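Hi there, hope your week has been kind to you so far. No rush at all, and the record is pasted right below.
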Amino acid sequence: MGIDTARAAAIEVEARTLAQPPALPASPAELFLQIRRCLASAFDEEILRTPVHGIFSLLKIDEEQRTDGTAVWVILGGATFDKGQDGSEFFYRRDGARISFVVIVMYANGTLALLAYRFHLQFPAGINPAYVRFDLNPEPSDDALLEPRCHIHAGAEMLRVAAPLMGPVEILDKLLYGMPIP
């Protein structure tokens, strides 16, 4: 036992996590619509305070060309990073917590692949932990023990706990319905 065993175990956990990707819709446009429907439903159910017109203005999708010629789609849900700043570039829950996210997917040969995401839930001031964030890094790190590719931050940037690979709507459902203010 020791650090080498711990690193080997972390690599094994990461391999298992990434081996079973979540089910995704057929195209980037369909994923975008699923996300928009999820947010609009949360507003209709009075979970989300951000009105539908605000959802439509905050939620964006852009196609980008990578240097290798492949196309990726970036779905933005509000501010890219939430570091506790004031602002209206967030989806607000009724309890005052706010959500922002970015999802990056690739569509090739009729298949949609999840490349990366960052879903941030910022609790109101004075709540501990201050935030919870779900990350899927675009590439694995050099040390899966310290930074698993798919992880959760629980109120601290350097605290990274390995997490299951989830689909974007699954994470939104968790942030909207399954993470009350502590």
